[in-house]
């Protein structure tokens, strides 16, 4: 998938696994979603996710809605990414 590297100001082609490796190297992956998402209880709505890692084993997802950073976050292990990290479904993917 096409990924815009906003640090190097270039566009590159990276797979989902390559994005996970970039996170392990200390980069953040931003997923700009095609439409707003809401959790199953209607508490949280977001249109952008930022993914990063603490130590290469624990991953953190933070949220934005209409340009505003939300205080909520979720933490995941490497196995959780199969169920929650979907860059191929995003409208745009950025590497920061």
What does this structure look like?
There is one protein chain. This protein has a seven-stranded mixed β-sheet, covered by helices on one side. The protein has helices spanning 16-24, 81-84, and strands at residues 2-5, 10-13, 29-38, 45-53, 58-65, 68-77, 92-95. 14% of the residues lie in helices and 51% in strands. It has 96 residues and is mainly beta. The model has no long low-confidence stretch (mean pLDDT 96).
Q: Could you provide a short overview of the structure?
A:
It contains two helices and seven strands, in the order E-E-H-E-E-E-E-H-E.
Main sheet strand line-up: 2-1-7-3-4-5-6
User: Uncertain regions: pLDDT < 50 for 5+ in a row?
Assistant: none
Distance between the termini: 16 Å
Helix percentage? 10-25%
What's the number of helices?
2
Order of helices and strands: EEHEEEEHE
Fraction of residues in β-strands: over 45%
The major sheet is characterized as: 7 strands, mixed
Question: What is the structural class?
Answer: mainly beta
C-alpha-based Rg, rounded: 13 Å
Which shape, going by the Cα principal axes?
globular
Tell me the total number of β-strands: 7
Overall mean confidence score, pLDDT:
96
């Amino acid at each position: 998938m096409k990924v815009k590297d906003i640090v190097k100001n270039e566009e590159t082609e990276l797979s989902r696994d390559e994005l996970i490796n970039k996170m392990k190297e200390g980069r953040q992956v931003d997923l700009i979603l095609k439409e707003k998402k809401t959790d199953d209880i209607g508490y949280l709505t977001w249109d952008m996710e930022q993914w990063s890692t603490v130590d290469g084993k624990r991953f953190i997802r933070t949220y934005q809605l209409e340009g505003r950073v939300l205080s909520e976050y979720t933490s995941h292990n490497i196995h959780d990414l199969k169920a929650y990290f979907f860059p191929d479904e995003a409208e745009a993917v950025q590497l920061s």
